[in-house]
Amino acid sequence: MPNPQSEKYDSCEIVERRDFADDLWAIRLRPPAPFSFRPGQYATLGIELDGRVLERPYSIVSAPEEPLLEFFIERIPGGALTPHLFALGEGSPVLMRKRPKGLFMRHGLAPGRTHLFVATVTGVAPFASMLRHMQMAVEPAGPPPRVALLQGASLSREFGYADEMSILKSRCSWFEYVPTVSRPWADPGWEGETGRVEDILRKYSDRFEVAPGLGTVYLCGHPGMIATARAVMTRRGLQEAEVIEEQYWPEGKEPTGAV
Ligand SMILES: Cc1cc2nc3c(=O)[nH]c(=O)nc-3n(C[C@H](O)[C@H](O)[C@H](O)COP(=O)(O)OP(=O)(O)OC[C@H]3O[C@@H](n4cnc5c(N)ncnc54)[C@H](O)[C@@H]3O)c2cc1C
After folding, report:
1. Which CATH code is given to the segment(s) 4-97?
2. Contact assessment for residue 38 and residue 60, using Cβ atoms and an 8 Å cutoff
3. What is the pTM (predicted TM-score) of this model?
4. Measured in angstroms, how far is the CA atom of residue 187 from the centroid of ligand 1?
5. Cα distance between the two ends of the chain
6. Whose CA is nearest to atom 27 of ligand 1?
């Protein structure tokens, strides 16, 4: 009798774990078979608990060209799954649905436009995947389209991929990176931009010439940021199709509190 779980899921080993803050960490998984996906897609990760699989979607950080699958995860107090995932170290298995999902960046990045990526904390994941893919597969064939990434967090230690993005900015003329901290009074060493990412959006969309007909804005993460940022860009004159979003949870929904 086939095991229905092994038909749906692969068991993947955590081969690397990096912790950025008390509640933010990244893992790299080794899939047992090739797992093809497009930048911007997500995988469904889970664990078996009381005979059932508890699963959630997670955007893939790694590029399709990389052999390991990378994820950037926030532990949610009272969340059903993330406290269990957080307890897993290198060598532990995680279940992953065999197929990726998601349509977030399905059209790729059109040449001749400026693409403005806007993320709250772990919402940087699909953008990191796209940017790695652009370096590995797009840039060698010719100049990529212009991209700017605005990433918001309460404190600078929550950025996770800031070093990678800063290095990319220093070597690629087609890329701009602006991290912004919304609680600078609690982050005395921070010298960069301050305020919520949606509050600095208008300023940077002007600076990077993300204008109607010329730019596309991609919003990922917190539902409140997405609603405000969409309104800002609509007032700027962008059409609905020029603002694309991936919301990580529905506005107003609390953790399910199974732990
Ligand atoms: C397409 C997609 C991609 C996603 N990618 C990622 C990812 O790359 N990394 C990641 O950490 N999460 C990601 N998420 C969120 C993830 O699927 C879970 O919702 C999250 O990990 C919480 O799971 P949980 O079972 O612990 O909490 P649950 O018990 O399911 O509680 C969910 C509730 O927790 C709160 N919550 C969930 N996520 C956050 C958050 N990041 N910050 C603050 N509050 C939150 C909200 O109130 C939400 O309604 C993604 C969601 C979607 C829909």
Report:
1. 2.40.30.10
2. no
3. 0.96
4. 25
5. 33
6. 79
